[in-house]
Amino acid sequence: MVSGFSSLGLVEMTRKRTRESLGALLLEPCGVCAGKGYVKTARSLAYDILREILREARQFNPKEFRILANQAVVELLLDEEREHLAALSDFIGKPISLQVDAALGQEQFDIVLL
Ligand SMILES: [Zn+2]
After folding, report:
1. If you measure from the C-alpha of residue 49 to the centroid of ligand 1, how many angstroms do you get, rounded to a whole number?
2. Ligand 1 centroid to 38 CA: how many Å?
């Protein structure tokens, strides 16, 4: 989003530029939605994570799965979605632990096989 460019001087200057170069100068891709214009909810991401663990449990045989995700997703899995998490853990016969990773964005997660 562009804001705060009310100076006449800048407007005059940027008018002379092409649309592409103006974009390159003033804008950068949105790192949250990667240009889609919307992001998955924490709940949607939580379900993605549970599906991914189920998929990996068919392929690999770790002692434990550890979910790394942002705070909102971890809280959801510990609270409202804890029964789904427990049911999955029972189904695959492995413990599933959770860890907040603040470096992970809204739509990012890692599953560590321990
Ligand atoms: Zn965005």
Report:
1. 22
2. 6
Kindly give the distance from the C-alpha atom of residue 28 to the centroid of ligand 1, in angstroms, as a whole number: 10
pLDDT for 4 beyond 80: no
Please name the amino acid found at residue 77: L
pLDDT band at 58 (very low <50, low <70, confident <90, very high): very high
CA of 29 to the centre of ligand 1 (A): 8
The pLDDT of residue 21 is above 90: no
Distance, CA 34 to ligand 1 centroid (Å)? Answer: 6
Query: Helix or strand or coil: residue 86?
Result: helix
Three-state secondary-structure class, residue 106 = coil
Q: Where are the chain's structural domains?
A: 1-30, 42-113
CA distances from 25 to 20, 30, 39, 103 (A): 9, 14, 25, 27
Global confidence as pTM: 0.72
Q: Which fold has domain 42-113?
A: Hypothetical Protein Ychn; Chain: A, (3.40.1260)
